[in-house]
Amino acid sequence: MQTKGDTLTMQYLVDRFEKIDIKPFFSNYEQPFCGKSMIAAQKNEICSWNVAAVVEGTDKKLKEQYILVCAHFDHLGKVKEVFFPGANDNASGTATVLYLANYFAKNPTKRSLIFACFAGEELGFLGSGSFIKNFPEPLQKIKYVINFDMVGRLDQGKLCVTGKESSKLLEKTVRKIAEKEKINISPSQAIFLSGSDHYLFYQKNIPYLCFNTGDDKKNYHTPRDRSDSIDYKGMKTIANFARQIIEELGVNPIEPDFRKIDKKKFKSDNNAEMLLMILSGATNKFGFVFSFMEECGNEIEISKTTEKGADAGLLKGDRVIKINGKEFLCTKDYLDLVITEKVKPYRITVVRDGKVKEVIVE
What we know:
This protein has 362 residues and is of the alpha+beta class. Helix content is 31%, strand content 22%. Strand 5 (77-79) and strand 6 form a beta hairpin.
């Protein structure tokens, strides 16, 4: 964090909000924060900035309430000289927030609208956590959270809108507008309940929506997630769908009802399972686990060994460079091996104290 790319992105977002001509939500557009990731390999505190602006509501009473429209702008950057562009995850969501900010700056609703771009999502919701911790008013003044995370793949024919189940009014609004616009919404997937910044607000009993089109092109957390793979027409469709939802929620004076979501009703599929494996780090088939934030780069560092891994001689801190002679460029390549590799025993090639060593895991 606070890399050159992180800083340039923050400056770009500030510039866009200034040109849209909406006010900073805090004293400045930038909200600096520092935090320690519980899921990444970094040992020191990680510092960055959220960028947030506000469009004041038009109703004397309702303007004291907020709808938070958000996305995370961070991604993986450069890992061991391998560049991860993050076009779908999550430049697509960030661009959608800017598009909506530009529209509502000219067309405000009765409720006030906060437009926030969070940093540190990939490291464990550091930016959104700081936003909540330092929110200058009672947090329950936020009546809805509308989050965009990976919305650049509508050409796959799938749009997931998770969280509509968190409020009866929200679910009714989404269904009505989807029917009017003839938008097909896929069943919610359990992984997207807790897989993005909205989850921290949901834990505070705030209803939310998370728009997501998945990643059937297999570009998730790989160097292949580039701008030429984005469905821009689909992004506009999603943005205009969300705009109508925000407009309706922004003028409806009814206090939203909050409901806990029954995850058992959610659909599960292979992509969701893949994401779950990444987020949990529970890929211990080969006798070890690692932080998914390592992103490989031709090697990954063992953060913990299983019993069979320890018995075979693997150690915490070993850097794995091959499995059964096969290299991997990024997390996705490694997870493919977790799923497809059948040849046992597993030959785990590691670098330890500068020397290459092969460990056999039964």
